[in-house]
Amino acid sequence: MRNGNANAVGCDGREMNMTAITKAAAKSGSATLSIVFVALIGATVLFLAGHAQSATLHDAAHDMRHATGFPCH
Amino acid sequence: MLAGGLIAGFAAGLLAALLHFAFVQDLILLGEQYESGALVHFETSGAAPAATGHDHAAGEAAGSHVHGAADPGAESALQRNALTVLFTALIYAAYGILLVAGFAVAEQFGRTVSPGEGLLWGLAGFAAFQLAPAMGLPPELPGSVAADLGARQMWWLATVVATGGGLALLGYGRTALSAALGGALLAAPHVVGAPQLDQFYGVAPPELAATFAGRVLGVGFVVWAALGWLAGRLWSSASA
C-alpha cells in the first residue's frame, strides 16, 4: 500500500530513504530524552518506596526498607 | 526499554520477597520484640529492667520514631506481609528501570549489553545500592540505633551515585585517568565516612543484628544477580 503511494507521487523511491535518515536523526535525540525520562521514573519510584518519610509510606514500606539496607528511621 | 526493566524488576522483586520471608522477616520480628521491650537482651552491666526500659526510651527518642508495625493489632500480619511483597517488587522494579536506563546509556556509547554483561551490571548494582552503603550504614535491625536520618539518607544517596559512577568508569573507561577517577569515586564515600553515633545503645543483641546484616546482603546479592541477568537477557532479545 505504502509502495503504491510512493509510486503514485512520482518519486523514485529515495524519499523513503530520506524519511529513514530523518527518523534516525530524530531517534538519537529522542533516545537521550527517553533515557532521561526512564531514569527519572526509576528514581522517583526509588525515592517514594525507599526514602519518603510520610507515615503511611514509611509503615507500608518498613520491612522492605530494613531488608534492603535503606536508612529507615 | 521501560517494559524490559519493569518485567525484570518485578520478577526479581518476587524472588526477593520469597528470600525475604525465608531468611530475613523472622529476624525483623525478633528485633522488634527487643525494640518494644517484649524481650530484653542480657545486660553485662547487670542493670535492672527499669534501666533497660530507659535505654529503650532513649533509642526511640534518637530514632524519633515509634513503629506502627510493632504496635500489636495496628495491622494484621497478612496485610503487613502483603505490603512488604508489594514494596519489595516496587523497589526492584525501580532498580530494573534504572538498570535498563544504564544499558541504554551504554548503547549510546556503542556498547551492547548481553545477558552476561547484564549479570555484571547486576553485581555492580548490588555493590552500588547495597554493599557500599552497608560499609558505612549496615542494614538496620529494628532495635538497633543509628545517626540522624536525613544525614544517613544523604550519605546513602551520595554513596550509591559515587559507587555506580566509579564502577562505570572502571568498567567502561579506556584511559588510566578514568580508572584512577573511578577508584577515587569508589573510595570517596568511605574516606568522608558515614554519619555515626557517639555511643551505641541499641537494645537488640549484636549477634542478631550481625546475622540480619549478613542475610540482607546475601539476599541482595542473589536478587541483584538475577535482576541483572534477566534485564540483560530481555534487553538483548528486544534489541536483536
Your description of this structure?
The complex is a heterodimer of chains A (73) and B (240). Chain A contains 3 helices and no strands. With 73 residues, chain A is mainly α. Chain A is rod-shaped, with a radius of gyration of 24 Å. Chain B has helices at 2-36, 49-63, 77-108, 115-136, 149-172, 176-192, 206-239. Chain B has 240 residues and is an all-alpha fold. Chain B is flat, with a radius of gyration of 20 Å.
Keywords summarizing the entry:
heterodimer; A: 73 residues; mainly alpha; 78% helix; disordered N terminus; B: 240 residues
What's the quick description here?
The complex is a heterodimer of chains A (73) and B (240). Chain A has 73 residues and is mainly alpha-helical. Chain A has helices at 2-8, 14-50, 55-67.
- Identify the overall geometry of chain B: flat
Poorly predicted sequence stretches spanning 5 or more consecutive residues of chain A: 1-7
What is the helix content of chain B?
A: over 70%
Largest sheet of chain B: none
* Whole-number count of domains of chain B: 1
Terminal residue distance of chain A: 63 Å
Outline the secondary-structure elements.
The complex is a heterodimer of chains A (73) and B (240).
Chain A: H1 2-8, H2 14-50, H3 55-67
Chain B: H1 2-36, H2 49-63, H3 77-108, H4 115-136, H5 149-172, H6 176-192, H7 206-239
Helix pairs in contact in B: 1-3, 1-7, 3-7, 4-5, 4-7, 5-6
